Fold:
Amino acid sequence: MSGWLERLGGLAARRHWIFLVAWVIILGALLAAKHQYGGTFANDYTVPGSGSSNGLNLLNADYPAEGGYGGQIVFHARNGTVAQHQSAVSQATANVAKLPHVIKAVSPFASAHSGAVSRTGATAYASVSWNDNPAGLDGSYLNRLNHAVAPARQAGLQVAYGAGAGQIGQNYGDTKSEVIGLACALVLLLFMFGSFITAAVPLVSAMFSVGAGLAVVGLVASVMTMPTTAPTVATLLGLGVAVDYGLFLTARHREQLDRGMGVAESASRAEGTSGSAIVIAGSTVVVAILGLYISGVPFVGAMGLSAAMVVAVTMIAALTLVPAFMGLVRNAIRSLAARTRAHREGISAQQQAVQTAAATEQHHEHSAFARWGRRVSRQPWPWGIASVLLLLALAIPLLSINLGQPDNGTQPASDSSRQAYDLISAGFGAGANGPLTVAVKLPRQPASADQSLLSSMTARAAGTHGVASVSPAAVNSAATVGVFNVVPASRPQAKATTALVTTLRDDVLPRFHVTSYVTGTTAGNVDFTSQTSGRMLYLILAVVAAAFLLLSTAFRSVVIALKAAVMNLLSIGAAYGVIVAIFQWGWGISLIGVPTTSPIPAYVPMMVFAIVFGLSMDYEVFLLSRVHEAWVSTGDAGRSVAIGIGSTARVITTAAAIMVAVFASFVLNDQPAVKMLAIGMAVAVLIDASVVRMILVPAIMSLLGRRAWWIPRWLDRVLPRLHLEGSEAAAAAETAAGADRALAGHG
Structure:
């Protein structure tokens, strides 16, 4: 692989204009195609095969009037009662019923006992159902909805959209986060390289690759359902990864130029070494994120697919666009100070680099980072124990994690769905925001028997602990399906509501010996959480096994692979603890614009694990390949750690700082789940690059010594050999050492 990448890097550097023009054409074509054929995004939490999914399928097939996606149009009279404006409300509801995709819209005044008017009369709601997911309806549809309810607003009523209706036309822009993230990345790259041209190479490549990747995501959204947060998560991850990959290649290239290597040769060598590391690390990220399909939930899998596609495009851009930029800017990628010295001395940049090459090599082994590595290596036990205790302390809140889907009561007060939630809660109780729908397959029997059965079922449900009210049952015209609604006494996200769903399914409904389902949005959220959290362990085992196999193959060491797995689990556990402390316990939530505490969506820990575990491979491969190279050449465990840290710490620290800045900038996003992902990933990367890479790794490597590179002989023979960053020199040294040992044995 490294040989093929070297040829690709050299070709891109020499024929840079061809590659650059090709990328401009590719990006333009993808953006145009997305504009013309791109799909829409919608959150669909359906779990195939679950009770809620089967119930919804039954209703859609046999009782469409009671199926579809539900929502509420809430009317509130600030003075007097809604009934005083009954004609305006009825007209607004009739207008909504005529909109496309609406199955039905029922006025709160459709019957005398509808239960849709509060006791005070100040609040009422119309029940609306759509045959398409409201979250996928765009801003133009929202304008039509606003026009439809205009009679009620003109009558002086407050109108808000609840449940699914509140998701219509939502557009969460990430431009501000992207600008802030890229600006922070530029500052950090300028600080590291001291050159605007050098800093621009990773950034421009990142913008090309993320733009192209998001266009691909938009096109895929036209043929499959993609979550509304998919572009945001893909952008969040893509920007961080793209800048990091460009940084790794550029840093290696510049280091080689500083040793006197030619531009084309250096681009080729950087591609064969750092490029190989990028392929391995990036592939690990893609595989780990695609592992989200293990959840068995299309929503989670699609979220992972969108991020994986963007990461794949960033890898391709790093391997083709970055070396093309290297060829374009040539020696201008070196620091301004070095180029100025060469000009002052009247020699070429390459001649000046040859003169300073030895000093560059010495700098790695005696830099401040290298001295830090030696310090930790001299006292590995205290540093190692302190680091582990810190990570465990940060992970303590994880013990009280509450997984569940946040309801609309967690949205900002300015949001229409939050206003509808508050009005419904005040007028009807919090449980009215998430009614449970019970669908019953009626046996072939007289209508009177069906009615008796449904009456018994509604009475039993009404007497169940945690139920606020039960609606009268309705039966379809074919008398094959009956439906009634159960309103919980607790809010949709409460544990008591989850317990009620379980009780109805396991204890109450089975008593009647007919096929029945508890469905609706709230029940669907319960199934979503149960399915996702239940598959978490499988995801962890699959990703850890893949990473273990990768690192064992790359470094010919099962010890290194095991150490990496344990360290990553510790750092991710600490990140989980921070997420729980902020969003569930409420520590500092006002500082990040979160209005209230909430449970943690089950897919957030799953995504953080898959993404961060994959990303950590970047730093693991980049650091340990240099340590391994030094170990093979010196045989000194302590010195090899110091050299490895000295030669990579600055790049890793800058890369991690960029990743943290990009991730943290997405805290500005309005969606709480995106804030959770942003903070969790930022904390995990920060911990991984600081506590793990700078303290735990040198401490453990020092304690292990030669044992760090142990692998069973049978496994060594079976595993393929990969050439990663610096591994070619290591492999050559290893071969030479083996030959010396063989000669010594013969002697």
In short: The radius of gyration is 30 Å. The CA atoms of residues 475 and 482 lie 4 Å apart. The first strand starts at residue 69 and ends at 76.
